[in-house]
């Protein structure tokens, strides 16, 4: 079975996971809407993260901050000064590229080892490298580029009625800064002592030059970020701790080890303020791609905010009688990327005898958009089956389907990843039992309707 993006995108569209944005108007490039199943999968991913990073964690708490922030925030964070990509156009075919990406792809293809990461190069260095190596345009193959110019990735808009510079505000390009500016508020109200973490899930916006690969790189996306504040010199230990925690979380939700790899940044690649950074990567049908960035950001962010805001952001350790700016460990992951990774990981086409093939999504039950399909064998049995549906849908997202033959209905549920189907048949009327059918093994089991609550109680945990 070949797992291709074409097949996965087609299934996502036909079953209501993801639709092109503004479709009836011809769309808006690289925007996507999440449909009837997409919204469930997305919510389940966010809930699973919140469950492990906030609810079950003795050290962590959560916040939900505004998307629009005082522009001084972006001065302090460095986004106004340097959150930009080096942009370049091909003069022949007029395609637009990121100069750093063209170089990275070129050296990877040729097996060239660079002395320092392209990320840290000046525009001049990039331009010279492209010239010296006569790197061709990835689109038309010619070598005729414009100069490189910096392009800031933040979306700009105006707050209030006048569209002038002093009313300019930005859509946040990451959720992290809302956490930093609330560090003191959270510490005071939670009465947390260091070490502790603050978590947030929310929308971020980046005017990406080269979005693409379906929902892998988009301009509007959701992030799940944690800033974990710790004592200086304990940071590397906490970095290792959270790195493992993130990987364990992915595995506990069914991500396979052979589809994951951990890439530690070497010294040249690290940001100047970071002591350690790791990317957890996933093997998408189009190749390895960054899923989760985990970084030891030292005391950089709080120091910057202290300097720019003039507020004291130090922490007083009353045990040690010491004042310091905490160090920060930041795991940052995109919901859409995780969505795509779980969808690709779950996709399968299985031979089930006599040349018959079924498409199935092997989602972990905690992530499955529909948990239980309730299927009366005949429409004559709808009344009894509806009672089962009403009982279970108070707890789980269930789907009632009484149309078509039972085999086709099972296939439909397999294709959307429903882990359990309940068939209500003629015997159910007299013996008070139903048949539970498992998506993965396709085996069946007879269970009393009165026992269903207890039966499903531990089926969706992770
Ligand atoms: P990339 O190198 O892919 O542009 P990045 O290193 O800029 O990513 P971070 O700033 O570390 O990404 O963002 C943290 C996480 O947020 C990423 O690992 C990814 O999961 C998600 N993310 C970032 N940019 C996008 C985007 N444009 N679309 C979807 N998810 C994104």
From TrEMBL:
Keywords, sorted A to Z: Aminoacyl-tRNA synthetase, ATP-binding, Cytoplasm, Ligase, Nucleotide-binding, Protein biosynthesis
Q: Which residues make up the binding site for substrate?
A: 98, 174, 221-225, 330-334
What terms describe the molecular function in GO for this protein? glycine-tRNA ligase activity
| Main location group | cytoplasm
Extract the Pfam families matched here. Answer: HGTP_anticodon, tRNA-synt_2b
Alphabetized Gene3D superfamilies for the sequence: Anticodon-binding domain (3.40.50.800), Bira Bifunctional Protein, Domain 2 (3.30.930.10)
Q: Where in the cell is it found?
A: Cytoplasm
Q: Which InterPro entries match?
A: aa-tRNA-synt_IIb (IPR002314), aa-tRNA-synth_II (IPR006195), aa-tRNA-synth_II/BPL/LPL (IPR045864), Anticodon-bd (IPR004154), Anticodon-bd_dom_sf (IPR036621), Gly-tRNA_synthase/POLG2 (IPR027031), Gly_tRNA_ligase_bac (IPR022961), GlyRS-like_core (IPR033731)
Reactions performed catalytically:
tRNA(Gly) + glycine + ATP = glycyl-tRNA(Gly) + AMP + diphosphate
What Enzyme Commission number(s) apply to this enzyme? Answer: 6.1.1.14
Q: Where does ATP bind?
A: 206-208, 216-221, 290-291, 334-337
Cite the Aminoacyl-transfer RNA synthetases class-II family profile domain residue spans from the record. Answer: 6-369
Question: In UniProt terms, what function does this protein have?
Answer: Catalyzes the attachment of glycine to tRNA(Gly).
- Write out the similarity annotation: Belongs to the class-II aminoacyl-tRNA synthetase family.
**What assembly does the database describe for this protein?**
Homodimer.
| Full protein name | Glycine--tRNA ligase
Write the gene name: glyQS
């Amino acid at each position: 079975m070949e797992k291709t993006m074409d097949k996965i995108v087609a299934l996502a569209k036909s079953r209501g996971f993801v639709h092109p944005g503004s479709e009836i108007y011809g769309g808006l490039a690289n925007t996507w809407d999440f449909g009837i199943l997409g919204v469930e999968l997305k919510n389940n991913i966010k809930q699973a993260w919140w469950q492990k990073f906030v609810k079950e964690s003795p050290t962590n708490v959560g916040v939900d901050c505004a998307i629009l922030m005082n522009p001084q925030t972006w001065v302090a964070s460095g986004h106004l000064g340097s959150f930009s990509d080096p942009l370049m156009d091909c003069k022949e075919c007029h395609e637009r590229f990121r100069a750093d990406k063209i170089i990275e792809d070129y050296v990877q293809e040729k097996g060239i080892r660079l002395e320092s990461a392209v990320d840290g190069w000046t525009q001049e260095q990039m331009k010279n490298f492209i010239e010296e190596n006569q790197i061709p345009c990835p689109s038309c193959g010619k070598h005729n580029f414009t100069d490189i110019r910096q392009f800031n990735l933040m979306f700009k808009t105006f707050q209030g009625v006048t569209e002038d510079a002093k009313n300019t505000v930005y859509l946040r390009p990451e959720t992290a800064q809302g956490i930093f500016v609330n560090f003191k508020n959270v510490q005071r109200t939670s009465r947390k002592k260091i070490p502790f973490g603050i978590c947030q899930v929310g929308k971020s916006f980046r005017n990406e030059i080269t979005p693409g690969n379906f929902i892998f790189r988009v301009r509007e996306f959701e992030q799940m970020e944690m800033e974990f504040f710790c004592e200086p010199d304990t940071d590397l230990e906490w970095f290792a701790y959270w790195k493992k925690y993130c990987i364990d979380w992915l595995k506990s939700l069914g991500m396979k080890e052979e589809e994951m790899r951990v890439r530690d940044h070497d010294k040249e690649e690290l940001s100047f303020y970071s002591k350690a950074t790791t990317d957890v990567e996933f093997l998408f049908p189009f190749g390895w791609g960054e899923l989760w960035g985990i970084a030891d950001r030292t005391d950089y962010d709080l120091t910057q905010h202290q300097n720019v805001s003039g507020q004291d952001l130090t922490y007083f350790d009353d045990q040690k009688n010491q004042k310091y700016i905490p160090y920060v460990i930041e795991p940052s992951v995109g919901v859409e990327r995780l969505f795509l990774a779980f969808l690709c990981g779950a996709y399968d086409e299985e031979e089930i005898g006599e040349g018959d093939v079924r498409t199935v999504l092997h989602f972990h039950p905690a992530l499955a958009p529909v948990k239980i399909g309730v299927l009366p064998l005949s429409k004559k049995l709808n009344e009894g089956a509806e009672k089962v549906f009403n009982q279970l849908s108070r707890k789980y997202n269930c789907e009632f389907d009484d149309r078509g033959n039972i085999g086709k209905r099972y296939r439909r549920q397999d294709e959307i990843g429903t882990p359990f189907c309940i068939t209500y048949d003629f015997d159910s009327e007299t013996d008070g039992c139903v048949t539970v059918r498992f998506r993965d093994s396709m085996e069946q089991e007879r269970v009393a309707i009165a026992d269903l609550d207890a039966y499903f109680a531990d089926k969706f945990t992770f």
